[in-house]
Design brief:
GO terms for molecular function: carboxypeptidase activity; peptidyl-dipeptidase activity. It is an enzyme of class 3 (hydrolase). Keywords: Carboxypeptidase, Hydrolase, Protease. With 264 residues, the protein is an alpha/beta fold. It is built from 8 helices and 17 strands. The protein has a single domain, classed as Class I glutamine amidotransferase (GATase) domain (Rossmann fold, 3-Layer(aba) Sandwich). The two termini are 27 Å apart.
Length: 264
């Protein structure tokens, strides 16, 4: 089934004392980020985070940007994400996962909240799920961790997303992870880039950074086994593209196009 909802995945993470007119990430003000998530300032937004300080920071920024209809869910050991939040989440127009959620899948596995979000994402055309930093990485099938990969939330199942990508320090990790999971495309977002995913597979790139696309779908199984053993190897049929503002990507067939996205 083709999802009717959309995903907004924001590269980088917020740091420092920010104001709506100042960047949440390079080249984007917080107000611009919020507008990508919900152009209607009266729409219901729910923030989800492990960090109370992140919640307080974003709550203040939303208010300053003119958003008033929002609330937050602070996940911690004494307050897991449970059925008590069903009614609130069922009424939400947008869910915003903040930048500190590496174990969110584990927290959600013990509740039916994830099933609720899946249903809304599949059936509601005006529903948006957004994530910034690690919160954005968690929206895909797998997430890259220091010791390998972890299970993401799976709102998009045919790609691995690195929202903290750097060509010098994280390129090798992204390529290795994609080769070992070559049914997935790899998308490495530098700061200042946003991915907007509609209909489950149509990707639009927006921002002044770039996106590294890694495609290992045609890498042979023998080469994959060699990568598993570690060390330097020779790999054929590994493809890469650098996507910029206006680039479009189909996650099903890995076709890349260049066309401006109208957000009006």
């Amino acid at each position: 089934m083709i999802p009717k909802g959309r995903l907004v995945i924001i590269g980088g993470s917020q740091a420092g004392d920010l104001k709506p007119e100042k960047p949440c990430s390079p080249h984007f003000s917080c107000e611009e980020i919020f507008q990508l998530i919900s152009k209607n300032t009266s729409n219901r937004i729910e923030l989800i985070s492990f960090s109370k300080s992140s919640i307080e920071k974003y709550s203040g920024l939303l208010v300053e940007a003119g958003y008033s209809n929002f609330d937050y869910i602070h996940i911690h050991e004494n307050q897991p994400l449970n059925e008590n939040f069903h009614e609130r989440l069922s009424k939400a127009d947008a869910i915003f996962f903040l930048d500190d959620l590496p174990d969110i899948r584990e927290m959600l596995n013990s509740s039916s909240i994830l099933d609720l979000l899946y249903r809304k994402f599949l059936l509601e055309s005006n529903f948006t799920i957004a994530g910034i930093g690690v919160g954005g990485m968690c929206l895909s099938k797998l997430i890259i961790k220091n010791d390998g990969t972890g299970e993401g939330l799976g709102f998009v199942n045919n790609c691995i997303i690195d929202t903290q990508f750097d060509y010098k320090s994280r390129f090798k990790s992204l390529v290795r992870t994609v080769i070992l999971n070559n049914d997935c495309l790899g998308l490495g977002l530098t700061e200042g880039m946003v991915l907007i995913i509609e209909q489950g597979s149509d990707v639009y790139c927006k921002g002044k950074g770039s996106v590294m696309l890694v495609n290992a779908r045609n890498v042979s199984k023998d080469r994959i086994k060699a990568v598993e053993k570690g060390g330097s190897i020779f790999v054929k049929n590994l493809k890469g593209h650098i996507l910029t503002d206006g680039s479009r990507l189909n996650l099903m067939n890995a076709e890349v196009m260049q066309k401006k996205l109208s957000l009006a």
